[in-house]
Automatic annotation (TrEMBL):
Entry similarity comment: Belongs to the NMI family.
Record InterPro entries: Nmi/IFP35_dom (IPR009909), Nucleotide-bd_a/b_plait_sf (IPR012677)
Protein name as catalogued: NMI protein
Principal place of residence: cytoplasm
Tree of life domain: Eukaryota
Keyword terms: Cytoplasm, Immunity, Innate immunity, Nucleus, Secreted
Pfam family, one: NID
Native source species: Bucco capensis (collared puffbird)
GO process annotations (BP): innate immune response; regulation of innate immune response
Location in or out of the cell: Cytoplasm; Nucleus; Secreted
Length: 215
């Protein structure tokens, strides 16, 4: 899972290999940073990550039901249309089978066809358009499987990376971003500066950028 974090201008993110190094620096709150010939007091804060959502999506596809749409509008009673649909989907040459129930809705021009045998829908849903013969004409019905989707293990979280620190208030320098980033990394690599081995670092002097943390 990737969690986004907005890094604003004059800020840097440092992720250490050892969690203890980051926690030690966070307890100091402020840190004197030596950038070439520039000495600056910067604030050390924990990066609060954006709120995220985790869930599992479970999708069940029915082997007995199909959804039929684009049923033609004809001047015949609803029960006649249900009978015509049942007879049409009963034909095995078009991949159908014995029909248990037909639910037809004239207003939406849709129908739900329920077959008696499980697995009867496999051949039908392979073609998105299904032939429907009525009154000497052949119509094309849109066919799709009946599905049921539900979510499980839905979680909302807002995390903090224990190995990462956020530096705020880094002064403007004439150097480019890469050079300043290298100086910050060298400074915090040294145990004499309460630092340690750095896994990742990102600095931006102007504008804002997005950094992704992987859970």
């Amino acid at each position: 899972t990737k969690i986004p974090f907005r890094l604003n201008q004059k800020q840097a993110l440092l992720t250490f290999e050892d969690e203890a190094v980051a926690q030690r620096l966070l307890k100091m709150d402020k840190h004197t940073l030596n950038l070439d010939s520039e000495i600056a007091d910067v604030r050390v804060k924990p990066p609060t990550l954006e709120m995220g959502v985790k869930f599992e999506l479970h999708l069940t596809i029915s082997g007995r039901k199909i959804i039929v749409s684009e049923v033609p509008e004809l001047s015949i009673p609803d029960d006649w249309m249900r009978d015509k649909l049942e007879l049409n989907f009963y034909k095995s040459e078009h991949g159908g089978g014995e029909v248990e129930h037909v639910k037809y809705d004239r207003r939406s021009r849709t129908a739900v066809i329920t077959f008696l045998r499980c697995g009867a829908t496999q051949n039908i849903v392979r073609c998105t358009k299904y032939p429907f013969f009525l009154s000497g004409r052949c119509y094309r019905l849109s066919v799709s499987p009946d599905t049921n989707a539900h979510l499980e293990k839905f979680q909302i979280y807002c995390g903090v990376s224990k190995k990462t620190i956020l530096l705020k208030g880094i002064p403007e320098l004439d150097n480019d971003d890469e050079s300043i980033q290298d100086m910050i990394e060298i400074h915090f690599q040294k145990p004499s500066n309460s630092g340690g081995e750095i896994e990742n670092i990102k600095y931006t002097s102007k504008g804002a950028t997005w950094v992704c943390f992987e859970e």
